[in-house]
Amino acid sequence: MTNSEQERWSRVKGRLRSTVGEDVYTSWFARMDLEAVQDESVHLSVPTRFLKSWIQAHYAERVLSAWQAEMPEVHRIDLSVRTAMRCAAPAKEAPAPVEARRPERSDAKPAADTRAPLMTPVAASHDALGGSPLDPRLTFASFVVGRANTLAHAAARQVADGRRGDPVMFNPLYIHAGVGLGKTHLLQAVTWAGNAGGERKVLYLTAEKFMYGFVAALKSQTALAFKEALRGIDVLVIDDLQFLQGKSTQAEFCHTLNALIDAGRQVVIAADRPPSDLESLDDRVRSRLAGGLVVEMATLGEDLRLGILKSRVAAARAHHASFDVPEPVLDYLARSITHNGRDLEGAINRLLAHSKLNNQPVTLDMAEREVRDLVRPQEPKRIKIEDIQRVVARQYNVSRSDLLSSRRTANVVRPRQVAMYLAKTLTLRSLPEIGRRFGGRDHTTVLHAVRKIEALVGKDVALNDEVESLKRQLQD
Q1: Which CATH number covers residue 252?
Q2: Would you tell me the crossing angle of helices 327-336 and 341-358 to the nearest 10 degrees?
Q3: Model confidence pLDDT, tens digit, residues 145-157
Q4: What confidence tens digit (pLDDT) does each residue in 222-243 have?
Q5: Which pTM was predicted?
Q6: DSSP characters for 380-445?
Q7: Which of 228, 268, 316, 438 has the fewest CB atoms within 10 Å of its CB?
Q8: Would residue 221 count as lying in a domain?
């Protein structure tokens, strides 16, 4: 390598460092070497296949842009693994090209990342870390706080406002709620706010992205580098944990979780159910999750629904100044659309589209017509026997396998009878079917349990209250 090539490479590295930041540069580019510059191609190498695949997936255009700033004629980057390149035939580790259009003039500006104008520095920094996509609308400023989510919001805000080296108050923070109640909004708000200070690295990943990254690292035999990269994060945010599957992936998640918590790093997790109900997860993971702060985001009350509607109207008005939704229409929507926040946002989008495309003001009649499918009486929730077994097991502090077993101890028999009673009264399953779902029992056993609980709830006030509470939990 000539002195001029070495000087160019030093300047390229300087550009990369200033573009992605010192932490990201150290993680991914510090061990990248220049091998050769030939005609319109630059040949680079890294020590591991994991680094190669990660750079190709996340930084290929940035590396190319940095080189084109020095040499506009370059339009191809070849990236190889050093060990493979030096010790094996080239065919076994063929370089993967990064193609770009050649500038039309010698004084053309260097090619830029086409996403850059659309990305804030925070988004660019998070993208550089390899996180899942962030929605710029999902910030604390746009999150509407109400009785259903006050604690979850306060806990998330505390995490986002923390600084590197501060003691962690609760770890992990585990937020659970049904669909469309604001979990993802809060987690992305933590990521936006946490990264805005520039002091900490906050990484937002869906469970699917975590699984993909781990499986890819295993296939490329770079799992150790993957683990080290994750454990260098200050705040790890995982969304939709209920989708985490596979024993090896769950084991790695457990190790990562333990390593981050033990090192004083913050972990924030969201799922659609509490840790105890994530039956597909390993017991050690559930135990560690339950050891932090577990917060439920409840269903949206009417006041909160109205607040969300007003917030969405205000956001729409920022782009469509003449858009207006009268108070009676907002009251109607808040009263009638009760399922989740996404339905509320969808209703405002429909009103906006109808108003703009037809050049008509929003009226109550128009709103009733446009969102009628969202306010139709909802079908009664279909309750599954598995749900009944899960809720009853949690209520009585036994396991679902206990309910299905042949154990006859008092602390198992009564919950089993209650579960069979609820299965008969809340589902359309036949007695033989219920028996089969409770460990292959005879239908007469189920009938005895149903009659037993029916007789007891009429005279045992405490049991009656327990059964009614279980019904409410299952029907909500």
Answers
A1: 3.40.50.300
A2: 140
A3: 888 889 999 999 9
A4: 666 666 777 778 888 989 888 8
A5: 0.56
A6: PPPPPHHHHHHHHHHHHT--HHHHHS----HHHHHHHHHHHHHHHHHS---HHHHHHHTTS--HHH
A7: 228
A8: yes
Question: What is the C-alpha to C-alpha distance for residues 267 and 187, in angstroms, rounded to an integer?
Answer: 11
Question: Same structural domain for residues 351 and 405?
Answer: no
Distance CA 192, CA 170 (A): 20
- On whether the CB atoms of residues 476 and 299 are closer than 8 A, the answer is yes
Pick from 164-168, 251-255, 271-275, 453-457 the range whose average pLDDT is largest: 453-457
For residue 194, the enclosing domain spans 121-296
Contacts of 129 (CB under 8 A, 6+ apart): 24, 201, 203, 233
129 band by pLDDT with thresholds 50, 70 and 90:
low
Q: What is the DSSP string of 50-106?
A: HHHHHHHHHTHHHHHHHHHHH-TT--EEEEEEHHHHHHS-GGGGPPEEEE-PPPSST
> In this structure, is residue 444 part of a structural domain?
yes
Residue 220 and residue 268 in one domain: yes
**Omega of the bond prior to 172 within 30 degrees of 0, cis?**
yes
Beta bridge partners of residue 44, listed in sequence order? 34, 79
463, 391: one domain? yes
On whether residue 380 sits in a domain, the answer given is no
Distance between terminal CA atoms of the chain?
A: 69
Q: How many domains does one find in the chain?
A: 4
Burial of 408 (0-12, 13-18, 19+ CB in 10 A): exposed
The angle, 0 to 180 degrees and rounded to 10, between the axes of the packed helices 3-20 and 60-70 is 130
Q: Determine, yes or no, domain membership for 367.
A: yes
